[in-house]
Design a protein that fits this description.
This protein is an alpha/beta fold. Strands 13, 15, 16, 18, 19, 21, 22, 24, 26, 29 and 32 form an eleven-stranded parallel β-sheet that branches. Strands 12-14-17-20-23-25-27-30-33-35 form a ten-stranded parallel β-sheet, covered by helices on one side. A seven-stranded mixed β-sheet has the order 5-4-1-6-10-7-11. The site of uridine-diphosphate-N-acetylglucosamine has 28 residues, from strand 1, helix 3 and strand 10.
């Protein structure tokens, strides 16, 4: 059976006290919406419909990067979760499979849980609702059951004292044939304490029609929604803990796991070795056998097998390090391809550049890539020796097997095998140091 996702993301999230729509607040450097969508990928959905409302333009904009295939539908007024789902009806007009309703602000549902919901559907339940047991069920909707059959869902506001005593809660997620879901939703009215179209009412309506409704259980932690900045911080902490465990389980060495920060898309290969206090921003891939030394910050970078980065290195977007490359302390690399075995070991900035195989970049080298208006490239060949404190004024090319003398300001291309020397010639004045010292000491004495 093919699946369609209906992701609800129209709510305001007023408790975030933010100008940014709630679902775009980030966990692991990715909008929380990307977490829910990423997990649901495991269902191989044929269609994805995201219902937007508050801050909808920004959400639609973000979706072009997160899930370009998703359809965006608008819910102009937030009249309830059932009303939100109904907005997806036209978009799914020709769709004849199962609809999974997910919340954009519930990022921790696992693929395994979604798979169990899917299995319950395949095993014959018409409606599958994801529930959880809670010791502190607070204001969640309650699942009224008979054995493992679901009879109805009661919202806290509408529940009787007996119903409020139920500890089995509604996560909000459900799965049902799309056509059936829309048909039932059409019959839901607003005769409840909130005056809203409750999605949850489809459970009672389904049972009244003789359809079967089942509950699939998951851990409470999975259904954790995010409503406040404190929730967001707790979600970030949970995400980091999870990412560290996953990395360790995948054969990565984390010397001090609690000090390493991950992004949703961080990929660390087996046998990569990460020292304490390393931050992985978005878009980092580290291949197996690479070492990231302490206090390094990486984003948008690719580190190949056997490369060593840091301590105290910064890799910015477009940093491509080939096998065995070394990037040492206080080195920044941006939008630069560094070929096999090249070394940039100390105190350098390499940006908008390519560096050939086995080239050595001396301490304090700078690619002067920016003229105040435009960026320019520096191309350095293979087996080149760039002397310490070389300024490479881009656009500039240094050929294979060339050298630059220490302190050179390179403003003209250097041909292969040539040595560029561009610095003021040195003069040694015999005895001048002694005479100067004497004069200065005499001045100091008089003061
Ligand atoms: C909902 C459930 C409740 C469940 C709880 C779990 C209903 C009626 N109640 O309640 O049983 O225990 O989730 O967290 O479904 N949204 C829209 N448009 C709307 C209203 C909501 O897009 O008009 C979105 C929100 O952005 C959010 C999600 O739907 O992502 C849930 O809405 P929320 O208001 O948080 O529902 P709850 O009252 O928490
Ligand atoms: Mg809620």
């Amino acid at each position: 059976m093919s699946a369609a996702l209906i992701v609800l993301a129209a709510g305001q999230g007023s408790r975030m006290l933010s100008d940014r729509p709630k679902v775009l607040h980030e966990i692991g450097n990715a909008p929380m919406l990307a977490h829910a969508l990423g997990t649901a990928d495991a269902l191989a959905p044929e269609r994805t419909v995201v219902v937007v409302g508050h801050g909808g333009e920004a959400v639609a904009d973000a979706l072009t990067a997160i899930a370009p295939e998703a359809d965006v539908v608008w819910q102009k007024e937030q009249l309830g979760t059932g009303h939100a789902v109904l907005q997806a009806r036209a978009a799914l007009d020709k769709f004849d499979g199962d609809a999974f309703v997910l919340f954009g602000d519930t990022p921790f549902i696992t693929a395994e849980t979604l798979a169990r919901m899917d299995t319950a559907r395949k095993d014959g339940a018409d409606l599958v609702v994801l529930g959880f047991e809670s010791d502190d069920p607070a204001r969640y909707g309650r699942l009224v059951t008979d054995g493992d059959a679901l009879l109805k869902i009661v919202e806290w506001k509408d529940a009787t004292e007996t119903e409020r005593a139920i500890r089995l809660c509604n996560s909000g997620l459900m799965c049902m044939p799309a056509k059936m879901l829309f048909e039932l939703l059409e019959r839901v009215d607003t005769g409840n304490a909130a005056g809203e179209v409750y999605l949850t009412d489809v459970a009672g309506l389904a049972v009244a029609r003789g359809l079967t409704a089942k509950v699939v259980l998951c851990a409470e932690a999975e259904t954790q929604g995010i409503n406040t900045r404190a929730d967001l911080a707790a979600a970030e902490a949970a995400f980091q803990t999870q990412s560290r465990v996953r990395a360790l389980e995948a054969g990565v060495t984390l010397v001090a796991p609690d000090t390493v920060h991950f992004s949703l898309d961080t990929h660390l290969g087996r046998d990569s070795h990460v020292e304490p206090y390393v931050v992985f921003g978005p878009g980092v891939t580290v291949e197996s056998g690479a070492t990231i030394r302490a206090f390094s910050h990486l984003e948008g970078a690719h580190v190949s097998n056997g490369a060593v980065v840091g301590p105290y290195a910064r890799l910015r977007p477009g940093a491509e390090l080939a096998e065995g490359v070394r990037v040492g302390n206080f080195v920044e690399v941006k939008n630069a391809q560094v070929a096999e075995g090249a070394k940039i070991n100390h105190l350098s900035y390499v940006g908008d550049a390519s560096i050939g195989r086995a080239t050595n970049i001396g301490a304090g080298t700078i690619t002067c890539n920016y003229d105040g208006v435009m960026k320019h490239r520096t191309e350095i060949g293979a087996r080149v020796f760039i002397g310490s404190n070389t300024m490479l004024v881009a656009p500039i090319t240094v050929g294979d097997d060339a050298m630059t003398a220490t302190g050179t300001v390179v403003t003209r291309d250097v041909p292969a095998t040539a040595m560029a020397i561009g610095r003021a010639p040195q003069e040694n004045k015999q005895g001048l140091a002694t005479r100067l010292f004497e004069r200065l000491r005499a001045i100091k004495k008089k003061k």
